[in-house]
Design a protein that fits this description.
Rossmann fold, alpha/beta, 15% strand, six-stranded parallel sheet
């Protein structure tokens, strides 16, 4: 691996994270020069290593979401494994996890425990629904967030069942928001010496992604139109058409 370079050179990250929303923030940090150490399960590693769709080739899922990171296996169910993790955290700038709700606290590496080890630590937690509310203790998936967050409804076709997209919209949106939130917290920690916990959720990311469409829906108390709503550049006014795609004899056009 080549010597890291970029604006995050010198930043140290420890990530106990899997899946897409839990790994992409740290992959982006590695792209910008951070040293990222990914903690994996002994013997089997991150289970997405086996999620390949191309026979004889590595997992495109794992390789895309973990580019540029270093891997270390630790058994966090043992005292020795947890002690090694604490030593890594003591020298880290950012720690990330997307364990099932409550698991980090139960095993001794929740935010309150790790801030004692490193008061400057930025602690990144990613979940399905966020830390509060009736669903806080439930696991979450990309399709769940797309459905509950309104994306499936906004892009629905009249008379057809609602569908979630093939692209992991909720995972990626949450990951990008987590990336920005972690860097904002890191900036604060470097200027004040005080770390903090940053919570991001799959569902919360979809609320941001819905943007002004969701605000309009709430204000007029009606579900979004099955056709894609007009954008500010194509205002929904008399004589104007919603932004959409149109088929011609030879190709599709987007307006």
């Amino acid at each position: 691996m080549t010597e890291p370079h970029g604006p995050l050179r010198g930043v140290k990250v420890v990530a106990c994270s899997t899946a897409q929303a839990g790994t992409v923030p740290y992959m982006l940090m590695a792209d910008l020069g951070a040293e990222v150490i990914k903690i994996e399960v002994p013997e089997v590693g991150d289970n997405s290593r086996g999620s390949t769709v191309l026979p004889g080739m590595p997992s495109t899922y794992f390789e895309t979401n973990n580019r540029g990171v270093k891997s270390l296996t630790l058994n966090l169910k043992t005292g020795e494994g947890r002690e090694i993790l604490r030593k890594l955290v003591a020298r880290a700038d950012i720690f990330g996890q997307n364990f099932r709700p409550g698991a980090a606290e139960k095993n001794g590496f929740g935010y309150e425990e790790l801030r004692k080890v490193n008061p400057k630590l930025v602690y990144m937690s990613i979940s399905g629904y966020g830390p509060k509310g009736p669903h806080a203790d439930l696991p979450g998936t990309d399709s769940m967030a797309q459905a509950l967050g309104g994306i499936a409804e906004a892009y629905s076709t009249p008379g057809q069942p609602l569908k979630t997209g093939i692209v992991s919209v909720a995972d990626e949106t949450c990951a990008i928001l987590a990336f920005g939130g972690a860097l904002a917290a890191l900036t604060y920690a470097r200027s004040t010496g005080i770390g903090q916990k940053v919570d991001c959720s799959l569902l919360g990311g979809q609320i941001r992604l819905m943007g002004w469409t969701l605000t309009t829906t709430m204000w007029r108390n009606r579900n979004p139109s099955p056709a894609r709503p007009a954008s500010p550049a194509h205002p929904s006014a008399p004589g104007s058409a919603p932004a959409s795609t149109t088929a011609t004899a030879s190709r599709w056009f987007s307006s």
